[in-house]
Specification:
- This protein is α/β, with parallel strands linked by helices.
- Helices cover about 25% and strands about 25% of the residues.
- The protein has six helices and 16 strands.
- The strands form three sheets. Strands 1, 2, 3, 5, 7, 8 and 10 form a seven-stranded mixed β-sheet that branches. It has a six-stranded mixed β-sheet with strand order 12-13-11-14-15-16, sandwiched between helices.
Length: about 375
Amino acid sequence: MVRGGGAVLRQYGSFIDALRLYVRGGTGGMGYPRLGGEGGRGGDVWFIAQERTTLKSIKDRYPQKRFIAGTGANSSVRALKGEKGKDREVHVPPGISILCDDGKQIGELNAAGERCLVARGGLGGSLATNFLPCKGQKRIVHLDLKLIADVGLVGFPNAGKSSLLSKVSHAKPQIADYAFTTIKPELGKIMYADYKQISVADLPGLIEGAHANKGMGHKFLKHIERTKQLLLVVDISGFQLSVKTRFRTAFETILLLTKELELYKEELLTKPALLAINKMDLPSAKENMNELMKQLQNPQDFLHLLQEELIPESTIKFKDIIPVSTCTGEGIEELKACIRKSLDEEAEKENEDYRKNKLLLLRTSEEKQMNRG
């Protein structure tokens, strides 16, 4: 946690995912009692989503973290109705939740160009206020960034997510042979021959107990909430965080990942999901893969491998299971095709639902008109 300049922020290297700001609407202008003139209303403070803006760029550009709108013009003989004060517009990254100091949500901005009013300007002086102006709304607001990506890579440390991201996209994440290579979310884009782009977020490795905020816990589980689909990445040879922790097979790893997502927020398991089985170039990978497929086809027969409290209430239904090797490139093109197909299918479903809802509304409207007639 870093404090300074009136701001509270969480920072991981150069990545910041939360920022605290002071905002205040402008004060209204003075009224003109003798002629009944009204002062102009104070300006408003707006947050506007803009691509390529980051919370770090806001912190660097505005170290005081104070955003105050302009004062309304006073009423005068020349202009009985004073002009409104100048609005203050603040550019923020898409994918922002805006919260009050008490935790209540003011709004969210998900796409470039969306706007949110965060502090209203005060009324100008008028007969109702004895021609005295009102001060603008002031508040402390929290910007909470949840990455928006089409696909979120989810897996335990060292599953090969960073390597996979570098293979499928133009991202250049840090890659090394130790557990927590990724300490901040990395974003990449898959580019297709028809110029379609799909964004992929590599989310730092979970550990057992992440739902309870162990390790990086909630700091990064929240990013999964704003990905359209999940891509679980699992090491075919299994996983062991350290010599003090138990070795987990690929099947156990999938169950434990499912349990962590379920305990954090059960709705995460309703997202469409793919499964990439990585490191297929390793010895015994084929035999391990055959065993894993048996276990995934009849998971209930193998749940005894885990302690009861670690077994998820429900298992994830994967749309596709793709064996890959980031070392040899095996399965990478197939994985990219599966990601595209899955996203296209979900988009078509959404369009179909939208069309059905529009048709239903149209019919309802027609029926109401006929009943009136």
